[in-house]
Amino acid sequence: MAIASFAPWVGLIGLIGLAGLAGIRRPVLPARSGAAIRMLGLLGLAGLAGIWIEGAGAMGAFGALGLWNHQSPKLAFWGRLGWAGLAGLPFALRAIA
Fold first, then answer.
1. What are the CA-CA distances from residue 55 to residues 28, 66, 89, 94 (Å)?
2. Which pTM does this prediction carry?
3. What is the rounded average pLDDT of the residues 55-84?
């Protein structure tokens, strides 16, 4: 199937989630809005499903959402890239169904 042929490459999108680790050193100021979206950064752990489900590792990109609305424009950019984790959902749902 076509979807299986590019699944390993889609899984690499999950590496974006590593940018979320920058929030440990330079956290988002508590006064900044978007705390609920930053909490979605925990969904980055769903990228561990990529160990068992090829392509689902892209969900690891959700980890970058922890940088959502960061005061640094560079880190805020990585936070917006966290939505790329949606690319891994079809692979995970396909494996579950």
1. 30, 22, 9, 10
2. 0.91
3. 96
